[in-house]
Specification:
This protein is α+β, with helices and mostly antiparallel strands and 353 residues long. The protein is built from 9 helices and 20 strands. The chain has a 6-stranded mixed beta sheet with strand order 4-3-2-1-5-6, sandwiched between helices. Strands 8-9-12-20 form a 4-stranded mixed beta sheet, with helices on one face.
Length: 353
């Protein structure tokens, strides 16, 4: 019997996006633990899965876990499988205590749902593609007026407009609810995960934008680096290097290839040009989470599989000067690798007059 408590794993397995705290699955059945105030919404989405309500109207996680374990014991289960990476340490140890007290065995199994989630079905591909289309249209609208529409505005103001445009185009929300859209201008673009602030965007400097949309729980994630009016000298060679790194990684990205080979291809292109290597894996999967498997990291020996959707996002970062990153999204099938996003990446098309 498998216990699931991660919200996104529950959504993936049951279709319920909110209101289920625990999902129990076994050969031939399942039940979900929900709350009194959300039972009607959950009933409409849960399908044939049995719904259980704790006997006490309490939001105390420990009481809910005690109720859960009591249900497992009453149904005759002898062991419980849990992914320890998808639950807080406090909740895990509390659950472990209740399970052992009930005479059951707790079996930790990391990455329990990951292999399923990282291979997307046609509906998931459709939703992610829709997110990409919304994000691209919003971005195109943002830069339509050229440099004049951006110079002098703050990073935060630009991020807010981009978010508003995505909502107008049908997104449920912007795709990075925890961290927010990245808008990094000038020297701020040298930080891989800059939070936009009040700094006004200036002429002749890089403007790095990392953004995405969310639709029905699924996300998109892209990055483009713009130049307003003109491109500074330092950025020309850096941009060409990043573009070459993207092409090198994409050439390796195919079903059956090692994930680490994709990362190393991009990394070699960057270091061969004399730049320091970027300090993150060159790509990651997207889906219900903005960052999920597959993980394109230098030391990964895992093989890419059909159905995987992953970003590739090499970068060059020069402290106190500026940074360049390009991020595109690719879908893998048995015989092909297709780039989902359609926005240009060529340097001359990133210079706004």
């Amino acid at each position: 019997m498998v216990l699931i408590c991660d919200t996104q794993d529950i959504t993936y397995l049951s279709g319920v996006r909110e209101g289920v705290s625990w999902l129990a699955i076994w050969d031939g059945g399942c039940f979900a633990v929900t709350r009194h105030m959300l039972i009607r919404e959950v009933e409409q989405e849960i399908g044939d899965c049995e719904l259980l309500l704790p006997t006490k109207r309490s939001s105390d996680p420990a009481l809910v876990e005690l109720f859960l374990v009591t249900q497992l014991k009453c149904r005759g289960f002898e062991s419980v499988v849990v992914d320890p990476n998808r639950i807080s340490a406090a909740s895990y140890f509390e659950l472990e205590k209740f399970i052992h007290t009930a005479g059951l065995d707790l079996v930790p199994m990391p990455r329990l749902v990951d292999p399923l989630r990282q291979r997307k079905d046609p509906l998931e591909l459709h939703l992610i593609t829709r997110c990409v289309m919304i994000a691209e249209r919003a971005f195109s609208g943002l830069i339509e007026a050229g440099a004049a529409g951006l110079v002098g505005r703050s990073e935060l103001e630009i991020a807010r407009e981009l978010e508003a445009r995505m909502l107008e185009l049908g997104a449920d929300r912007q795709g990075f609810p925890d961290s927010g859209i990245i808008v990094a201008s000038g020297p701020n673009s040298a930080s891989a995960h800059h939070s936009p602030g009040e700094r006004p965007v200036g002429n002749g400097e890089p403007l790095l934008i990392d953004w995405g949309a969310e639709v029905s729980g699924y996300r998109s994630d892209m990055t483009r680096t713009l130049f307003l009016g003109s491109i500074p000298e330092f950025a020309k060679r850096a941009y060409q290097t990043v573009e070459s790194a993207l092409e090198a990684a994409a050439a390796v990205l195919r079903t059956g290839a090692k994930m680490g080979d994709v990362d190393r291809a991009a990394r070699r292109a960057v270091t061969a040009a004399g730049y320091q290597e970027f300090h993150y894996g060159v790509g990651h999967g997207i889906g219900l989470a903005i960052h999920e498997g597959p993980w394109l990291r230098a030391h990964s020996e895992e093989l890419l599989e059909p159905g995987m959707i992953t970003t590739v996002e090499p970068g060059v970062y020069l402290p106190d000067i500026g940074g360049i990153r390009i991020e595109s999204i690719y879908a893998l099938s048995e015989r092909a690798t297709d780039r989902i996003d359609r926005l240009p990446v060529a340097m001359d098309q990133m210079i706004l007059d």
